[in-house]
Amino acid sequence: MQLTRTVKFLTSREILFGAWRSAESLRSWFRPRPDMRIRALDYEAAPGGRLRAVLDRPEGGSVQILGKVERFQPSVRLELRLGLLEDDRQLEDGWHERLPSSVTMSFDGDFEGSTLTLVHEGLASEEEVENIGHDWDGLLAELEQHVVRQCGEFYDRVTRGNAFHSRFGGFWPDQARARETLAGRVEAGRLAPADVPLFEHWIDRGYVVLERAVSERTLRAFEAELDRLWRAPHPELFIECSFDGTWTILPMRPDMRDRPHKVLDVHGYSAGARRILAAPRTIDFLTKLMDRPPMGFQSLCFMRGTEQAMHQDTAFVALGSPMELVGSWVALEDVRPGSGELQYFEGSHRIPEYLFDDRARAQAHGTGNPDAFYAHVQQESSGRGCPLTRFLPKRGDVLLWHADLVHGGSPVELQGSSRRSLVTHYCPVDVDPEWMAVHRNSGRLRAAKGAYYCHLRRGN
User: Fold this and answer.
1) pLDDT tens digits, 28-76
2) Which of 222, 309, 414, 452 could bond to 295 as cystine, CB 3.0-4.6 Å?
3) Considering only CA atoms, which of 267, 286, 287, 290 is closest in space to residue 277?
């Protein structure tokens, strides 16, 4: 006696036949019921090859599906001798020559769809036809699900591209295949071989250090200009100053100079600060990273360590394209241990993203409590074994860091010690800082060839 099944599939016959091409393929679907476990499966996809699958039922007991390949014509025809055993006993030699029934599968169709015609002959009774029919219905249903999964995996492969680590994008080193992209850029002449160690470090650890990137002459010119600004402040130049631990933003005044403070956006009013911002080695790296001119859009000038909590800039420095952000820390002096030096978790730019209100990388101003964010970045960085490093630069050294590198200020152990630095946040010139939409600002201005800047305009 025999049974026949004809089933249509929404896939090509090549993909459909592929389910029979290897033991690995069969292991993902070859069971009559989804609740059965494939304990063992051996299969040789060639004429004379053997099939043996041991399946465990959830209610107990096992069944063996045994087969021998008689004909193997890819994408056209597969013929098997087949048999079942209602246990999992070891088989004697020659079992494959004594299989009682035969199965012929014919494959037809094209890229838009295919048809599998199955004929199972040599069944002993109507009862066996019915029982085997139920088994084949289950196997073919599992085969259909396998094909759906295969198509899904195909679409994933051909649509994912060189995906970014973040759903919000980023620069080219933020892509999944960044190292391959780096090699391709060198081969295409877009990067020099000397750039490779810098970008490998950026990809793996989330920052680079450019030693002596700012000249002594440039530093001295800025310091002289800053001194003049303190003695005769520009009316739009503001500082953030501490009064008994409470930080307040107010216009720059000479009597505030000795209080704990940071000067806000000094680059908007100091040509010396802009020369630091546009230091050639800094701009060279940023241009190669961003693929267009960089723009410094925010600066903070520090005299002492701040002991700032470990954080990611994306939470508090909002951009229209949140991952197209780079931080810069320029040492205005040799930094001593214990002075509240900058510290960071190496490689923390790859921890899982934290979303504010389940939608944004940045927290809306004046909303919510960031404690959950602080706990997240600390726990994820520590839990993933990211080394905590303290930055001890020499005067003129520049640290550039990834938008998501977790960083902050270490404890100040040497009371009264200085830790003079200039911090700048950069984005590509075509990206809008969020404050451009709501605050008076300078617009985009040229700092040097291939480098731009902009800044808030505070005051009246």
Assistant:
1) 999 999 999 999 999 999 999 999 999 999 999 999 999 999 999 999 9
2) 452
3) 267
**Within 13 Å, how many C-alpha atoms sit on residue 218's CB side?**
20
Report the chain's terminal Cα–Cα distance, integer Å. Answer: 96
Which backbone phi and psi does 381 adopt, to 5 degrees?
Answer: -65, -45
DSSP state, residue 394:
P
Rounded Cα distance between 336 and 316, Å, is: 28
Tokens of 62: 């096992």
Taking the C-alpha atoms of residue 22 and residue 13, their distance in angstroms, rounded to an integer, is: 16
Nearest to 421 by CA among 331, 354, 287: 331
Long-range contacts of 438-442 (CB under 8 A, 24+ apart): 442/268
Contacts of 291 (CB under 8 A, 6+ apart): 171, 172, 428
Say if residues 30 and 139 touch (Cβ distance below 8 Å).
yes
**DSSP letters for 271-313:** HHHHHHHT-HHHHHHHHHHHSS-EEEEEEEEESS---PPPB-G
**Model-level pTM?**
0.73
Q: Is 44 exposed, middle or buried (0-12, 13-18, 19+ CB in 10 A)?
A: middle
Instruction: Report residue 50: phi and psi, to 5°.
Output: -110, 150
**CA nearest neighbour of 91 among 40, 45, 140, 155:** 40
- Whether 157 shows a pLDDT value over 90: the answer reads no
CA distance 132 to 2: 10
CB-based contacts of 181-184 (< 8 A; 24+ apart in sequence): none
Is 70 exceeded by the pLDDT of residue 436?
yes
Q: Which of 301, 292, 326 is nearest to 425 (CA)?
A: 326
Helical residues (DSSP H) of 160-246, grouped into ranges: 178-187, 196-205, 216-231
Q: How far apart are CA 428 and CA 187, in angstroms?
A: 25
User: Residue 144 corresponds to which tokens in the numbers above?
Assistant: 């259909």
**Any residues with CB less than 8 A from the CB of 246 and at least 6 apart, and which?**
none
CB neighbour list of residue 415: distance below 8 Å, 6 or more residues apart? none
Which region, left, alpha or beta, applies to residue 147 given φ > 0 means left and ψ of -120 to 50 means alpha?
Answer: alpha
The amino acid at 28: S
Three-state SS for 246?
Answer: strand
Pair of tokens at residue 167: 């759903």
Residue 259 makes CB contacts below 8 A (sequence gap 6+) with: 241, 242, 243
